[in-house]
Design goal:
By secondary structure, the chain is mainly beta. It has one helix at about 30-35; strands at about 5-15, 20-25, 40-50, 55-60, 65-70. It has one domain (about 5-65): SH3 type barrels (Roll).
């Protein structure tokens, strides 16, 4: 069975796009550890809302992320 550790977040891309969604930080202690990991260049967001569209799964290139804010 795969361990899931869901974290809700909002992120802003370098082009100004805002995305709200969830990610699984897996075996990392913190969201920042996942973001700084070089093992995968993409952050997978699910139940993500982008520009008012329906919830979906989005793969974001980490190089395009300007900032990330964890949601409580």
């Amino acid at each position: 069975m795969v361990d899931t550790r869901d974290t809700e977040l909002v992120l802003k891309l370098v082009d100004g796009t805002l995305i709200q969604g969830k990610t699984n930080i897996r075996n990392y202690s913190r969201l920042s550890d996942l973001l700084n990991s070089e093992s995968d260049p993409f952050l997978i967001l699910y139940e993500a809302i982008l520009a008012g569209n329906e919830k979906s799964t989005i793969f974001v290139n980490k190089d395009q992320i300007l900032w990330v804010k964890p949601e409580p």
